[in-house]
Amino acid sequence: MKMPKADDATKDRFRRLVPDLPGVEVKPMFGQLGAFLQGNMFAGLFGDDIGVKLAADDLAALREAGAGPFGPAERPMGGYLSLPAGVDDETAERWIGKAAELAATLPPKARKR
Q1: Over the chain, what HEC string results?
Q2: End-to-end CA distance of the chain
Q3: pLDDT value, residue 29
Q4: Which CATH class is domain 8-104?
Q5: Residues in the chain with pLDDT values less than 50
Q6: Confidence (pTM)
Q7: Are 29 and 42 in contact (CB under 8 A)?
Q8: In what order do the strands lie in the sheet with 32-37?
Q9: Predicted confidence (pLDDT) per residue in 34-60, tens digit
Q10: Is-contact 53 102, C-beta < 8 A?
């Protein structure tokens, strides 16, 4: 499986779209970027795709808006969807914000040593 790489402009856009909230971190992950809150990833990049982790109702709504699987075609990440191609920044910020809200309800994950 070949991992697509995001270019610098895509990484910069992702960083801008992630909410500036206490405890939110954007960090590298497998050559991509992930956005974390309390150790829980709520958004990430896979090549040019922005993926978000959402509650079931929001996943259904995003799927209706044209979202698809997030991650490798052979093993997409459960609970995540890729935002529709060409999504504008305002819409992307809204979905990423919903993902951050969900992450805030999850128990913190312990840091790996």
Answers
A1: CCCCCCCHHHHHHHHHHCCCCCCEEEEEECCEEEEEECCEEEEEEECCEEEEECCHHHHHHHHHCCCEECCCCCCCCCCEEECCCCCCHHHHHHHHHHHHHHHHCCCCCCCCC
A2: 28
A3: 87
A4: alpha beta
A5: none
A6: 0.92
A7: no
A8: 24-29, 32-37, 40-46, 49-53, 80-82, 68-69
A9: 999 999 999 999 999 999 999 999 999
A10: yes
User: What is the per-residue pLDDT for 73?
Assistant: 87
Q: Supply the mean pLDDT for the chain.
A: 94
DSSP bridge pairs for 24: 37
Using the structure block, give the residue that is written with the tokens 């529709």. 84
CA dihedral 80, 84, 86, 90 (to 10 degrees): -70
In this structure, the number of other CB atoms found within 10 A of the CB of residue 95 comes to 24
Sign of the alpha-carbon dihedral angle for 74, 63, 44, 91: positive
